[in-house]
Each structure stands twice: as C-alpha cells, then as structure tokens.
Design goal:
It is a single chain. The protein is α+β, with helices and mostly antiparallel strands and 428 residues long. The protein has two domains: 258 residues, PPM-type phosphatase domain (Phosphatase 2c, domain 1, 4-Layer Sandwich); 77 residues, no CATH class. Helices cover 29% and strands 25% of the residues. InterPro entries: PP2C (IPR015655), PPM-type-like_dom_sf (IPR036457), PPM-type_phosphatase-like_dom (IPR001932).
Amino acid sequence: MALGEGRDRHRELIPLAALIGREMRSEKMEKPSVRYGYAAQSRKGEDYFLAKMDCLRVPGNGSSSFCAFAIFDGHNGSKAAIYTRENLLNHVLNAIPRGLGREDWLQALPRALVAGFVKTDKEFQSRGETSGTTVTFVIIDGWTVTVASVGDSRCILDSRGGGLSILTVDHRLEENVEERERVTASGGEVGRLSIVGGVEIGPLRCWPGGLCLSRSIGDMDVGEFIVPVPYVKQVKLSNAGGRLIIASDGIWDAISSEMAAKSCRGLPAELASKQVVKEALRSRGLKDDTTCIVVDIIPPDNSLPPSPPPKKQSKLRSLIFRKRSHDSASKLAKKLSAVGIVEELFEEGSAMLADRLGNESSVGQSTSGLFTCAVCQVDLAPSEGISVHAGSIFSTSTKPWEGPFLCIDCRNKKDAMEGKRPSGVKVV
C-alpha cells in the first residue's frame, strides 16, 4: 500500500464522539417542538391535569426528552384523580426495561402503560378510598404520539393533511356494546336506575355502584370488573405536525370532536384551549367540570402552515391510519410522511392482561437472577411467579410456564377483573 493512500484513509476516519454528536444534532434538528395551552371551568372541582415538558427517557441525557400530558376526571370525590396524577407516570416509566434505545423504548411503552395503569389502581384501592377517575394519558416523543385511556375523556388528533382522528375509545356502557358484554360476563349487572313504579331512567349503569363507565382507576366499591386496563393507540405523525385536543367529558358532552377542532383552528395552543372551553359552555352551559389541553406538535422550522379546510368523508379518510409493514416499514413511513398521512404503529383495547402483557419468557427477568412482576415490579423467585397465562381460557395458544409473571396479589387482581373470583376476596 502506498504511503499516500494510507494517509488518505487515515484522514477519512472520524472519531466516534464526533459521529454521535452529529447524530444528536441531526435528531435535534428533525425533532418537532411542542407547545400547549390549558383552560378549564370548574363545577365540582374533580378535574385535574398533568403537563410535563421535560421528561427524560435516559436520566441526565437531554436529547432523550419527551412530553407527557393527561386529564383525570374524578367522580365520587377527587382523591383518585389526585393520586393518579401524582403516581401514574412514574409507574409507567418503572415498567419499561432499562437501557433501551429510543425505538425499543417506544415499542415497550404500550405494555408499560397497561402495567402502570393497573399498578396505580391496585395501590389506590389498597388505601380504602371509594372515589374513581377517568384517565386520558398522552406521551409525545418526537413525531410519535402514544395515548392510553380509561373512561370517557377523549383525545383527538387534527393532523395536517390527514384529517381528524379520535385516538381514544369511550368506555361508556350506554354506547359500548363490547364493554357491556364484558362486564356482564365478569359478574356485573348492567341496567338503568329504577324509580318509584319501576320506571327506568338515565344512562346504563353497572351494578353494584351505579357507575356509567366500564373502565376507570379506583371505584373499589363498584367491583373489579370495572377495570383499569387502558385502550392504547400509538401513531406517528407526518413531518407536517398536528394538533392534539385532550379534554374531559364536560367538553365532549357539549360539542363534537369536529366542532372542537374547527372552533380553534388557526389559533395558538393557549388561545385554542380557551376557545374550546368557551364553545362548550356556549353550547351547554357549565353542567360539569370542563377541562381542555391543546398540544401543538410543530415542525422544526417553527412555522405552522395554514390548516386545511374541513374535508368531507372520502377515500382519503380510510387511509388516515395504516398498519406498519414489517417488511417495508421505513419505505412506508417515508411515503406516508410525504403525503401527510398519519401512520398507525399500535392499537389494542383488550381488557385481558394475558393479551396485553405479551408472551415473552425472557421479559421480566432481572440481572439478579430473580423474576419481576409485570405489574408491580417486585422481584420474585422463579418458584413464586405465576404466569399471566396460567389457567387463562382466553390465551389457549400460550404455555402457562412462559412469562411474563405476576406476584400473588397481582394474579388475584387479574382473576377478579376477569370475574374468576368475587371482588375483594383474597386467595391464600
């Protein structure tokens, strides 16, 4: 090899630190900015919200930042809403394995959200409080939005070029037939309130307790078939960005999703949230706590293009969400981004933990050689852990000796949620 050739090759070498620095700068340049606004009118004082702009996937690493937003609509008191606001995020983050890169972290997030919701509910019920709360919980990491929800608060996406999409499912017994069937199959009774003379009035409720919802956190006096297992949806926005409107049912009982989005288009997030609340009050008056968070996910050039006019239902509506292909995920993502269509990465609403916590024998094993409960994260000896699939009639393709595993308390809670034992009965 000629001396000159060796020198040329040497000059081509770039220190690893410089390469990492370039990647971090490139990621920072491509990452959207996030701005939000909050507005509320209180009637009962049971609505609470969370807005954290400085969360970190990796402690001490500013380039691993993400944002978290949530609305907690309490009922029968505010203690469940307050407790959930203070603890849910930490429970979710603790359920994600350490040392994951960003893509693996995002893939682990839906499962961690399920574990975090169930752990929060389990801990709150152990306090003996009877209040409950709906939860709509949103995590934004770059262009990826992950939403987990129980109850009837709602999150909608007004995406640029992709139209309007609802990222949550309402768990109201009145409208949700599947949830009514699940509740009755698990031991609950569904019916309307009876007054003198046997006349039935009002919405469908679950008895005992009379709750109109099929999923919530808390509500220990209603029955554990009212589950805290969230519906989870994860999407990736195009590089045009978009707007999220997260609101309690005080908004959605008054105005439609389309009306909420239309009423605040063209306004910055802070004014937009106030406008949505104003529109709801104009339509229905202050009959319930009315809370709204508007979050704008803005392209790196800090300029938001004018919102397109509302579109009629068309073939494009069916293309708003596309399942990611394992064979050509990156190619599909580029195409979707180019035409401003939102890419669906994950969606699951099953109330069964065997469906939601996965089927990986290696998941939940710690470096100490012990196993970890998939819900409450306590260490277990191999002989102590009970597979989430053990005895499940809903997961016939799985093996009961495969993980993930649950501690005895979490297994008891799983059985109660599925109607396999009366609520509150402990197995010893």
